[in-house]
Amino acid sequence: MAFRSTIRPLRPPRRTLIAAPSPNDGPLMTRRADRALPEIPSSRKLWLTTLPIFISIITVSALAIFNYQKASSSIVNATLYALRTSEVGKRELGEQIYFRDTFPWIWGEMNQLHGRINISFGVKGTKGKGMMRFKSVRKTRMGFFETIEWSLEMEDGRKLQLLNEVRDDPFKDTALHAKP
Fold it and tell me: Which residues, 6+ apart, have CB-to-CB distance to 133 below 8 Å?
């Protein structure tokens, strides 16, 4: 019997209650882990739903940043200024020529490093709206840019050439013009 009384059946240890620390006791330095941890739900479903949203937000943000860089470039500012001072631009668009949209979208390539500029964007004035196109290339590595096309396409479909023989190249004697 003595042998039997020393062997106890396997039972989980009794949990003693410990009072919460009072405000003047200081920090609680130890904590017992005498219970099972809760199950963590699988995060695979969460990843599959949030990853496409994250990628689309990053893509839209990158496109907006690159477009802002194009819209605030000296090329866009110079072409918009030249359109404002153009007789054809004033006649067709009126006064106060500026971007057509609140957030202008600059379409096309603006690669000054490789000598290729081919952009278009919407413009408006007090009389009308249109799409301005500008194309310029640099044929040699250290050469000047040569303007190939500078036109204004009105909403009714008319395409007006802003670069013609009557008016000199508005970019002459600037970094955007090639010497003959």
Answer: 119, 120, 149, 150, 151, 152, 153
